[in-house]
Amino acid sequence: MVRMPTDLETTSADLEKTSVAVLGLGAMGQALAAALLRAGHPTTVWNRSAGKGDKLVAQGAVRAATAGDAVRAAELIVVCVVDYDAAGTILESAAGDLPGRVLVNLTSDTPERARTTAAWANDRGVDYLDGAIMVPITMIGQPEALIFYSGPQAAYDKHETALKALGGRPAYLGEDQGLAAVYDLALLDFFYGSIAGLVHAFALAGADGVRATDLAPYLNTITAILPPLAAGAARDIDAGSFPGEEANLGMMATAVDHILEWAEHRGLDVSTVRPIKDVYDKAVARGHAADSWTSTIEVVRGG
């Protein structure tokens, strides 16, 4: 026979629930708060425009009148706003209520801003975790959602259960609060460079009458090799060794020349292609023609 707990009893699941305040209810902030509510964490919400919390209140959230009120109601404080300037203004308004709590900032910015905010928090007796959300809003709260965290491990470990409610693949990177932003910017660097190349590829094919939808299926040939390519390139770069037996930079530089020549012939904007040629040419001039394309990192590093 199953015995239900009385009002005075607490289940093990209840013990893992954390009181959370979410400051900032833009689209992402609302998604974060909703995920916490679905996971059963008592959630207090605050936003300058109070009406943005209406749907969350209907789902069980408590609306706070001020950021300070929200902070006082919770153990874990999650901030997600447009930029660090906005986050700083909010946190300053509630600074007197933050000591003794764990602050998680999921606002995107640079590693320097993350470290500066961490120092501000540390001076006030606040454990500070910086975070970076690596998925779109629709994936928040899903098992495959990746969110980076960096900062005091004890603070992360204490609230890991609540953080997993935001995304099922939390990645703790280390004590340095700037690390989440480092990973964030590096992955976005790769992403934005990739989609710029994708758009240019569609334009290049389209200049000769090929529809984007006809080219797209064949892009899988390229994307399928990226995981092993990235793993191998990372090993070579960390080792400072650039073997070019399979594909050397000189050969690839010639292919880039062909792309650039034809794109210019077709009247396309080549501002996303020319920098690639410039970097390749500089690496070749340094004697890397017979090396792997990974040797271009010596140019990119500026040394």
Question: Can you describe this structure?
Answer:
The structure is a single chain. The protein has 303 residues and is of the alpha/beta class. The protein has helices spanning 12-15, 27-38, 54-58, 67-72, 84-93, 111-123, 153-158, 160-166, 179-206, 212-215, 219-223, 226-239, 249-265, 274-288, 297-300; strands spanning 20-23, 43-46, 62-63, 76-79, 102-105, 127-133, 146-150, 169-172. It has two domains: 16-176, 3-Layer(aba) Sandwich (Rossmann fold), CATH 3.40.50.720; 183-300, N-(1-d-carboxylethyl)-l-norvaline Dehydrogenase, domain 2. Strands 3-2-1-4-5-6-7-8 form an eight-stranded mixed β-sheet, sandwiched between helices. The chain is elongated and about 65 Å long. The chain starts with 11 loop residues before the first helix and ends with a helix. This is NAD(P)-dependent oxidoreductase. It holds the Pfam family NAD_binding_2. Residues 20-172 form the 6-phosphogluconate dehydrogenase NADP-binding domain. InterPro entries: 6PGD_dom2 (IPR013328), 6PGDH_NADP-bd (IPR006115), HIBADH-related (IPR015815), HIBADH-related_NP60_sf (IPR051265), NAD(P)-bd_dom_sf (IPR036291), RedAm-like_C (IPR048666).
